[in-house]
Amino acid sequence: MCSGTLTSAALLIEGAGVLVSGDMLSDILMPFLDLEAADPLNDYLKALRLFDSVADDVVAIVPGHGSVGSAGQLRERIAQDRAYVQALLDDRETDDPRVGPSAPLEWLADVHGWQVQRLAEKRRSWDFS
Q: Global pTM?
């Protein structure tokens, strides 16, 4: 599964209902964006819509990072990733626990800050006024 220039792969094993989601849909990592892409936020949202489109066929999700999840957890992870990306798209703070004070890995806050900074730089380059 690939959308735009998003550099993540996923595999749906249809007969078993297993979705191997690569670097996406982790329960411990927030979305890592392809910041070299022309539109990294909308690319990520497109990929999440692809996951949404197969969610009814999934009984288990296996991310590349984090824990295996059930079908219900798949929808929760899609919603959580969508909320994170939408907050960045709207240029507002996120309340995602994966980057807050209770983050499972303390360095994630730094990665989040770096992504926010790079997106701000991209926005400034788009502003031709």
A: 0.89
Helix (H) or strand (E) run with residue 59 in it = none
CB 78 within 8 A of CB 48: yes
Q: CA–CA separation, 102 vs 53, rounded Å? A: 31
Residue 28 has φ and ψ, to the nearest 5°, of -115, -20
Taking only the tens place, the pLDDT of each residue in 18-74 is: 999 999 999 999 999 999 998 999 999 999 999 999 999 999 999 999 999 999 999
Task: Write down how long the chain is.
Answer: 129
Domain ranges of the chain: 11-126
Amino acid identity, position 107: W
